[in-house]
Specification:
It contains 12 helices and 5 strands. It has helices at 17-30, 52-69, 86-95, 100-104, 107-118, 125-139, 153-170, 214-222, 239-250, 254-265, 271-298, 300-329; strands at residues 4-9, 35-40, 76-80, 145-147, 179-181. The strands form 2 sheets. A 3-stranded parallel sheet has the order 1-2-3. A two-stranded parallel ribbon has the order 4-5. Helix 7 links the parallel strand 4 (145-147) and strand 5. Helix 3 packs parallel to helix 12 (300-329). The chain is globular.
């Protein structure tokens, strides 16, 4: 049997190339070697202030975007979290086993709560407890592996701790302790500030949308930061130039990257040429993805049926786990 992989993403208005190269492309590759379950976690998206109509639209858009990127319903399950209510029930059970102190040390809670306080917004209990829901997302499918970045290890560790605590307290081995799956992914930085990770929240000039039009992509790459003054001792390449090379390699253009790297080392590289090659590579990628996205969007009836069918498949698995969980914790059996 293949090892099971679980990974989730929050619904956003638009994915950018950092999301794709840093996570989603890896999801597509894993489908051939693992039993993959991928989720769009809309319940996590309501821990911060939001617009309900935007949430619904973004969730629908994320389904289309992930399928356009290559998530294959014949190879993997792609579900919407709120269509699988067992997540929330397991979250409550695990929350009763999770120490307050562990949650209070979560770095993302500290960061986001400071952001809310600065904007005079209240801090919800959901923001504080969402790592427990994140653990439930993983543990309810008894996943063996979770693809993570180094900045996400803390939350996976909580999932492992809760699985351990549950199994010890109830004398079982029901919940599987998930392992981190560190795979080679590209870390794409902001085009305007290459010392920061690419993010839409930084502004339009900082990112390239995954389905962005050609003219806009070329304009953004043309204005991307390259050299930014005198480099620190021991640093041979500016962060901006290194970021452009990283994007080029992420697009699969290793030969072009190698050739341009040689020119850089010999002192003969023109940044305009590097930017042209990077722009061409991104346009090639986004044109292909936009075409696929249009095909999927045009068949809305089939898409909606497929989403519900995949979410039901996920729910069947979740029900199996929750039935056993309810039994061992002493809750009555459902009919």
């Amino acid at each position: 049997m293949k090892s099971r992989v679980l990974s989730c993403i929050q619904p956003t208005a638009e994915m950018h190339i950092g999301n794709y190269f840093g996570a989603v492309k890896n999801w597509v590759d894993l489908q051939d070697s693992h039993d993959c379950i991928y989720g769009i976690v809309d319940l996590h998206a309501i821990t911060m202030p939001y617009d309900p109509s935007h949430l619904r639209a973004n969730t629908e858009r994320m389904v289309i975007d992930l399928l356009s990127c290559g998530i294959d319903p014949e190879k993997a399950i792609l579900f919407i979290q709120s269509l699988v209510p067992e997540h929330a029930e397991l979250c409550w059970i695990l929350g009763c086993l999770c120490p307050y102190g562990e949650l209070s040390r979560m770095t993302q809670f500290k960061d986001k709560s400071e952001l809310l306080e600065s904007g005079k917004s209240f801090i919800s209990a959901g923001l504080f407890t969402y790592p427990v829901l994140q653990a439930a997302d993983i543990l309810i499918y008894r996943a063996n592996f979770v693809p993570v970045g180094k900045d996400q290890e803390q939350h996976l560790e909580l999932s492992r701790d809760l699985a351990d605590r549950f199994n010890r307290q109830f004398g079982t081995q029901l919940l599987v302790k998930p392992q981190a799956l560190f795979t080679e992914t590209s870390k794409v930085m902001s085009l305007a500030d290459p010392n920061r990770k690419m993010s839409k929240s930084l502004g339009d000039r900082h990112y390239v949308g995954l389905f962005e039009e050609e003219s806009s992509i070329r304009d953004k790459i043309k204005s991307a930061v390259t050299d930014s003054g005198v480099l620190p001792p021991g640093v041979g390449m500016s962060a901006g130039v290194a970021n452009l090379f990283e994007i080029l390699k992420a697009c699969g253009k290793k030969e072009e990257a190698s050739l341009l790297w040689g020119q850089y080392e010999s002192g003969g590289l023109k940044y305009t040429e590097l930017k042209d090659v990077v722009a061409n590579s991104l346009v090639e990628l986004t044109t292909r993805l936009r075409s696929r996205r249009k095909e999927i969007s045009d068949d809305a009836t089939t898409l909606n049926a497929k989403v519900k069918e995949m979410s039901e498949r996920a729910r069947d698995l979740a029900k199996e786990t929750l039935k056993l969980v309810r039994e061992v914790v002493g809750l009555p059996e459902r009919e």
